[in-house]
Design brief:
Number of strands: 6
CATH class of the largest domain: Alpha Beta
Distance between the termini: 70 Å
Largest sheet: 6 strands, parallel
Shape: elongated
Strand content: 5-15%
CATH superfamily of the largest domain: SPOUT methyltransferase, trefoil knot domain
Order of helices and strands: EHEHHEHEHEHEHHHH
Number of helices: 10
Length: about 240
């Protein structure tokens, strides 16, 4: 089970935004460590994720939370660049974290204070540290924005998600499109070197593009109609 832990939140609005990001990506267990007062602002910004705040658990310290819920693996988050003076360990990216995470037992993902993040003694409790690469001009992100990026990577890995009807075209479907286009090009009576160039250009376009299975099917139907028209015209 994954627990999202907000350490000493200073703004009820950010609690609401975090709850909203959690629900966007299928997370529901919110832990608040020594939080500010849960005012109406938190529920307002949570929108349709109000129940996450209502069902949240409050603890006075990270240690109490870890002991009470028997946490097996702790993930810290930081906006500080790797190697900075106050971060004494190497952080990994959200993508690397999601790919390597094996969800067994109870896992806690810690998000620090809006102003100061996690303290070094809190980071020392963590098994791994996650940081989001960002511009050196302004590297520190709002907690809900940073959380959404991490949650997205977890969701993407766990669900292996694709939009309905937008499955990527298979290699065979792409090869069939290229083959159909080659036949059309050959029937145009172009010089051989131009045939080769046209075929290569079409192959490159198909290779670079994200072609869904539905799009490949539609395009194949169009190419078939073109071939039929060319055959009829040549017969005349």
């Amino acid at each position: 089970m994954i627990y999202i832990v907000f350490v000493e939140p200073e703004s009820p609005g950010n609690i609401g935004f975090l709850a909203r990001a959690m629900k966007n990506f299928g997370l529901s267990n919110l832990i608040l460590i020594n939080p500010c007062n849960l005012e109406n602002e938190a529920y307002f910004h949570a929108m349709h994720a109000k129940e996450i705040i209502t069902n949240s658990r409050v603890y006075g310290s990270i240690e109490n939370f870890i002991d009470d819920l028997k946490i097996d693996f702790i993930v810290g988050t930081t906006g500080a660049a790797c190697g900075s003076y106050n971060v004494q360990r190497i952080a990994i990216t959200p993508e690397e974290f999601a790919k390597s995470l094996k969800i067994k037992g109870n896992i806690a993902i810690l998000f620090g204070r809006e102003g100061n993040g996690l303290y070094n003694e809190e980071i020392s409790l963590c098994d791994v540290l996650v940081s989001i690469p960002s511009s050196g001009d302004y590297p520190i992100m709002n907690i809900s924005h940073a959380a959404a990026i991490i949650f997205y990577e977890l969701f993407k890995r766990e669900k292996n998600y694709t939009f309905e009807g937008l499955e990527k075209a298979s290699a065979i479907e792409k090869m069939n499109l290229i083959s159909d286009m080659d036949k059309i090009i050959e029937s145009l009576g172009l010089p051989q070197h131009k045939n080769k160039t046209a075929s290569t250009v079409f192959k490159n376009i198909i290779g670079r593009a994200f072609i869904s299975g539905r799009e490949a099917h539609t395009l194949k139907g169009i190419l078939r109609r073109v071939k039929e028209k060319i055959v009829i015209k040549n017969d005349i």
